[in-house]
Design goal:
mainly alpha, 14 helices, 2 strands
Length: about 325
């Protein structure tokens, strides 16, 4: 197979997610009363980045052939914690950001230890830990709110526009991809995560560090969910232990991962595809708003789009003559 055909096949899911997002966003902008303006793009970006970060967290685990049903609760827990620690001077706020990311990483590490060393199924483990994480969030924030000295300046900066044009949230998301995803993807542990997702037995027989790779994937997933929690705090200026928000973001993250071409069987796809899947999935709600659809139709519309995307992405299975063709 020629190099370009190999790279195209490897990025097929990401390209499909990008095409779906581009088509939907173009339709959204062309029908929006204000058209393509900096404020419209900023609003869409701020909403999309929240789901994109949680989808990246889910993608990290799914690539290893696991699934993390606690990402939404880590997201909520870190939102509640951030509403307490993003206060005072820039130094104390910076320390608060580090603390929130550390808690997210600790949540991911907890999942990893139970899954890897306890040898429990990821779906069972993360349902249980998610309940624990939400319990802690509810203990921290039994009622929504934030302290009077909350650092609103930082929140405004992170949700505003650079040079009054480019959404800051998109720039931060790009930096996260360059600092977190790209090094992980190109590292030995990143390649091991892909190998373990494709065939853990083959990766083990090849002497690859499977346990370390899985551990890193879960920890990075927890930290990415924590980043999402930080941005939720920036947007709302408060923390809220909402079980509905946690469950919604968990399910939407899985949908975004599938829409982004990441195989739920592991070993195929990328976090970048999950990002475009999240942006496309979030744009569905914006389309319903623009066309003034009844909100009750939103789940149906989202389900139809997701089903079509998954069907298109799986169409090549009809041309498979034997299972070895899947690895070409």
């Amino acid at each position: 197979m020629r190099d370009w055909r190999y790279h195209f096949a490897e990025q097929r899911g990401t390209l499909l997610a990008f095409a779906i997002f581009l088509a939907m966003f173009t339709l959204y902008i062309s029908n929006h009363p204000a058209g393509l303006t900096a404020n419209v793009v900023q609003t869409a970006s701020n909403k999309g980045v929240l789901l994109a970060l949680v989808a990246m967290a889910q993608a990290m685990v799914v690539l290893t052939a696991g699934i993390d049903l606690s990402v939404g609760m880590i997201f909520i827990l870190c939102n509640c914690l951030a509403s307490y620690v993003l206060v005072g001077t820039p130094l104390t706020t910076g320390l608060g950001v580090i603390a929130v990311l550390g808690v997210g990483g600790l949540c991911g590490a907890t999942n990893a230890v139970i899954v890897i060393f306890g040898r429990l199924q990821p779906i069972v483990t993360t349902i249980a830990t998610g309940a624990v994480f939400f319990g802690i969030a509810l203990w921290l924030r039994p009622f929504p709110g934030s302290p009077s000295d909350f650092n609103a300046d930082l929140a405004d900066a992170m949700t505003g526009k650079l040079f009054n044009v480019v959404p800051t949230s998109l720039v931060v998301l790009l930096c996260i991809v360059l600092v977190v995803w790209v090094p992980f993807r190109r590292s030995v542990l990143g390649r091991t995560a892909y190998a373990a997702g494709s065939s853990e037995m083959a990766a083990y027989m090849s002497g690859m560090p499977i346990k370390r790779a899985k551990f890193l994937a879960y920890v990075l997933g927890g930290m990415l969910a924590a980043m999402g929690g930080l941005f939720l705090t920036f947007f709302t200026y408060s923390g809220e232990a909402s079980v509905s928000n946690g469950n919604t973001y968990t399910l939407y993250a899985i949908a975004a991962v599938v829409l982004g071409g990441v195989s739920l069987y592991g070993g195929r796809g990328s976090a970048i595809g999950a990002i475009f899947g999240a942006l496309a999935f979030r744009t569905i709600g914006d389309l319903l708003f623009v066309f003034d659809f009844d909100p009750l139709w939103q789940p149906l519309f989202q389900g139809v789009v997701l089903l079509l995307a998954v069907s298109i992405g799986s169409a090549r299975l009809f041309h498979v003559r034997n299972r070895l063709d899947l690895f070409e």
